[in-house]
Specification:
- By secondary structure, the protein is an alpha/beta fold.
- It folds into 2 domains: 7-99 and 198-228, Nucleotidyltransferase, domain 5 (2-Layer Sandwich), CATH 3.30.420.40; 101-194, Nucleotidyltransferase, domain 5 (2-Layer Sandwich).
- It is 33% helix and 27% strand.
- The chain is built from 7 helices and 10 strands.
- It has helices spanning 40-55, 74-91, 100-112, 160-166, 176-184, 200-212, 235-239, and strands at residues 7-12, 17-24, 27-35, 64-70, 94-99, 119-125, 131-137, 147-155, 171-174, 191-194.
- The strands form 2 sheets. The chain has a 5-stranded mixed beta sheet with strand order 3-2-1-4-5, with helices on both faces. It has a 5-stranded mixed beta sheet with strand order 8-7-6-9-10, sandwiched between helices.
- Helix 1 (40-55) packs across helix 2.
- The protein is globular.
Length: 245
Amino acid sequence: MSGSLPLILALDTAQEDCAAALLKGTELIGSRVETVGSRHSEIILPMIRDLLKDSGVEKTDLSLIAFGAGPGSFTGLRVACGVAQGLAWALECMTAPVSSLEAQAEWLRDSERLPAGEVIAVLNDARMHECYGGVWRVPEDPSSRLELLAGPEITAPADAMTFLTRYGAGHLVGSAELVYGGEMALPAALHHAASRSSRPEAIGRIAAMMSAAGEVVSPELAAPVYVRNRVALTMAERARGERLQ
């Protein structure tokens, strides 16, 4: 591996997983993923420490801190962003805020070796009977980032068919199908990859592409992506057991 490639720490606390990955450029060195519910703030720093130790890497060796910027859990997004900012300030390095939806699409492209032109939709459970959605197309150059076609946006589970057909998506990944599958009336020809799992290695790969393109930012400019302004339930909604993500 070339010494000029960035050593990237990628973090993700956007959903119920707490995750970290270490990459040299786009090559994965090691990763950790643990389902923690809402305990991200307790788990993330020890997880980073153990990952670096097991990989034989010092914090001072890091050259870029990437994080899943959302959309996702309001509190979770702030954890990853805050940790990334703190590390980047201390290490005097840059940050890469990466779309959590794009990371799932990138994971699917890589794991399925999808050819150019294939269209990937991501639908994640956004709670409140809604989904976070985005759509990407695989570019001609396999070393380039996916091409954004739509999103991030909010859509209802019942509108999933319209969302997918509008952009000609042939692939679907994300957690929404696990929660709302019976309501989504998905096309029979669609390739499904329903999953709640975090993909920190994909966040790291996208960050490497961002670094090569000069798209990384200083820590003070790093920020989560919030698609929905409403972040609190009414007392009646809480009494019914409803939850915000």
